[in-house]
Structure formats: C-alpha cells, structure tokens
Design goal:
alpha+beta, Thymidylate Synthase, Chain A, six-stranded mixed β-sheet, two-stranded antiparallel ribbon, 8 helices, 10 strands, about 30% helix, binds 5,10-methenyl-6,7,8-trihydrofolic acid, binds the ligand O=c1ccn([C@H]2C[C@H](O)[C@@H](COP(=O)(O)O)O2)c(=O)[nH]1
C-alpha cells in the first residue's frame, strides 16, 4: 500500500531534473579540457525501470532518430562519420578529421577489439552468446576503454562500460559513464543504453528490465546554465513506449525502421552550444 502511493507520485525523469538541480546548487566550479568551465560532481546513479516506459527526456525534445542511428552506427563497427551524416546526424563532426575518421572509437572496440595474439574480438556477439548460454554469468559486459589505443581515438570513450544481468526473465543493464555532459550528451546516452537493452532482450528472449546509469565526472558546462534553468521550470510528461516492429535475425540486422516510438510528446528542444 505504501509502495503504491510512493510510485504513483514518482516520475522517473525527476531523477534527471534532480541531477540538474544538484549540479546547479552544489556543483564544484572546475576548469576543463575544452576551456568552457563546468559545475561538476563526482559519482552519481539513476535507475529506470524499462517496463514503466522508455526513458527519453520529455522536458526537452531529444532527437530519437539521431540516437537510434548513432547506436546502429556503433553496432555496425563503423568509426567514420559518413553514415551519420548521410542520416542527418552531425554530432560527431567537430571531432572527425577531414575524411570523417575518428580513430579506433566505440565501433572498433565493440566489434573488432584487437588482441595481442592477432585475434579480433567481437565483444557484442560474444555478449549475445553468453546471455543465451550462461545468463547467470557475472562477466556479461563489454567495454570501449582499450587502454592501448586511447591515444589514437578522437575522444576516449565516455559511455565506456556496459554490464548486463538476467533475473526473473528480465534483462537489466548498467552503463558506466566516466564523463557526462549532463545537458547535451546524457539524454542521448540514456536513450541509447535503453534502446540497446530492448534490442539485446529481444535477441535472447527476455523482457527489458532496468537501466542503471552510473556517472563518474558529471558536469554542467557553464554555457548551459540558463538552458538547464529553463528545463527545470518544465513538468515531465508521460514517457513514450518503444516498440520493436520485427525480430531481426541477429543484433547486426536492426534498421532504424524497426523502432517505433509511441506517444512521445515532449516540451520543445532547447538549443545549447557543444564544448569541443
Ligand atoms: N562536450 C561534449 N558533449 C557531448 O555530449 C559529446 C561530446 N562533447 N563529444 C562527443 C559526443 C558528441 N555528442 C553530442 C554532441 C552534440 C549534441 C547536441 O548538440 N545535441 C543537441 C542537438 C542535436 C541535433 O539535433 O543534431 C540536442 O539538443 O540534443 C549531442 C551529443 C555526445 N558527445
Ligand atoms: O557520449 C558522450 C560523449 C561525450 N560526452 C561528453 C562528456 C564530456 O563533456 C565530453 C568529453 O570530454 P572529456 O574531456 O574526454 O571527458 O563529452 C558525453 O556526455 N556523452
């Protein structure tokens, strides 16, 4: 009974709004690599029950199509911005070289990590196999943090480690993010981590469980403060739901057209400059 009362008044997005408020009120003012300056905290967690709705922010519009294409791009193993640009996604352009290359970033490490003995390791395919064969394993994870190749990456991975957990027929996932741009990047990271849980769960015959997000250096850039205050004046709306319209034969065969976002009626987007 008490639980029921507690859950009816709780909107999952409140966790994100609380985080913005904490950054504004208690964030430590720090210089950063980009020269912009931030308000920052160290160590934070949020949890989203994916059966309660898809955790796409509603207090500003997030470009779901862009998120979906970025995730499909990671999963394809690609590290050149051409595919993104062909699909209207420009978020990586500032970091690419004149040919669109980003170095051995996410896609390379997820799908073709080079081992010292000459093997290339497909961490995502191995994860799907392990989820099917050994769902109680405590080693269900993949990471982009390839220490030996960091110096050749346009940016070292921010959303760096993904771990999975199966219980009661549900697949949950933790995303560990070492560095989070709370106003611009984080909404995208939550969306993509949730979408990946939906896809993996479908592939291995489970229901989506919880997304647990864990951040290291979580920051609000100083030139996002006014935008964060505008967002904090808004009331979260009902979360959308995500439908997968077909079951592709493998994790490699999803297309944007397989995703249907139902009932997304967010507040308008809020423009903000990205710190490079
Ligand atoms: N400072 C910084 N923040 C990030 O979030 C970030 C980086 N750098 N570097 C690498 C990638 C690129 N990412 C980005 C970059 C820009 C937006 C952005 O400008 N988003 C806007 C509009 C996007 C659009 O519609 O094209 C938004 O309102 O979400 C989002 C994620 C995430 N990452
Ligand atoms: O998916 C992403 C990618 C990047 N970010 C943010 C986090 C930081 O603000 C910058 C990266 O700068 P570092 O100096 O390498 O930490 O990009 C994000 O939030 N999400």
């Amino acid at each position: 009974m008490i639980m029921e009362q507690a859950t009816t008044s709780f909107h999952p997005e409140q966790q994100y709004l609380d985080l913005l408020r904490i950054l504004l009120e208690r964030g430590v003012r720090r210089e950063d690599r980009t020269g912009t300056g931030t308000l920052s905290i160290f160590g934070h967690q949020m949890r989203f029950d994916l059966s309660a709705g898809f955790p796409l922010l509603t207090t500003k519009r997030i470009y779901f199509k862009g998120c979906a294409h970025e995730l499909l791009w990671f999963l394809s193993g690609d590290t050149n911005t051409r595919y993104l640009r062909e699909n209207g996604v420009t978020i990586w352009d500032e970091w690419a070289d004149e040919n669109g290359n980003l170095g051995p970033v996410y896609g390379k490490q997820w799908r073709a990590w080079e081992a010292k003995d000459g093997r290339t390791i497909d961490q995502v395919a191995e994860l799907v196999q392990a989820l099917k064969q050994n769902p109680t394993s405590r080693r269900l994870l993949f990471t982009g943090w390839n220490v030996g190749e960091l110096n050749r990456m346009a940016l070292p991975p921010c959303h760096m480690t993904y771990q999975y957990y199966v219980a009661d027929g549900r697949l949950s996932g933790i995303l560990y993010q070492r560095s989070a741009d709370a106003f611009l990047g984080l909404g995208w990271n939550l969306c993509e981590a949730a979408l990946l849980i939906h896809m993996l769960a479908q592939q291995v015959g489970l229901e989506p469980g919880e997304l647990v997000w864990m951040g290291g250096d979580v920051h609000l850039y100083l030139n996002h403060i006014d935008q964060a205050r505008i967002q904090l004046e808004r009331e979260p709306r009902d979360l959308p739901t995500l439908r997968l319209l077909r079951k592709p034969a493998s994790i490699d065969e999803y297309r944007y057209e397989d995703f249907e976002l139902v009932g997304y009626q967010p507040h308008p987007s809020i423009a903000a400059p990205v710190a490079v």
